[in-house]
Each structure stands twice: as structure tokens, then as C-alpha cells.
Amino acid sequence: MNTDRTCNNSFWTKEEDKIFGNTLATKEDNNNLLEEMAKALPGKSVDDIKDQYNILIEDINAIKSRYVPLPNYLEIQN
């Protein structure tokens, strides 16, 4: 799936992203994950949450397949 990020009307703040991530991490085994996320993010629709989840999965897959290069951190000498 290739989610067109420009078509997603829903703007996500840093705080909403944090809530999304925390809810996903703590409720991932819950059969009602979407409902739990909708409760935690009252300004977001279930479709907004599904779109955000799909974008996350795309990002993870891109990283795993090495389409996204790892950052080149400077080595700190002690």
C-alpha cells in the first residue's frame, strides 16, 4: 500500500503522535485497538488513525528494506 501523505487531511501534532505511539505500544494486544486509539485521540477519526498506522508501517518497511539510510552519526572520541 502506498499511502499518499498529501491526501491525508488530518494534521498530526507532536503530542498526538506521542499519544498514538504510546497507545499502540501499550494496547497493541487489545482487540479493540482502534477504539482505544479513538478514545485517546478524540479529534481523530478511525480513518485518520488507520491512515497514520499505514504510514507507520510503510516507514518501518522502508527502514527494514534499507530504502531509508541510517544517519551518519559522528563518532565521539573519549
UniProtKB/TrEMBL annotation:
Keywords: Nucleus, Transcription, Transcription regulation
MF-aspect GO terms: DNA-binding transcription factor activity; transcription cis-regulatory region binding
Keyword Transcription regulation: yes
InterPro entries in UniProt: Homeodomain-like_sf (IPR009057), RADIALIS-like (IPR044636), SANT/Myb (IPR001005)
Superkingdom to which the source organism belongs: Eukaryota
GO biological process entries: green leaf volatile biosynthetic process
SUPFAM superfamilies xrefs: Homeodomain-like
Protein name: Myb-like domain-containing protein
Source organism per UniProt: Solanum pinnatisectum
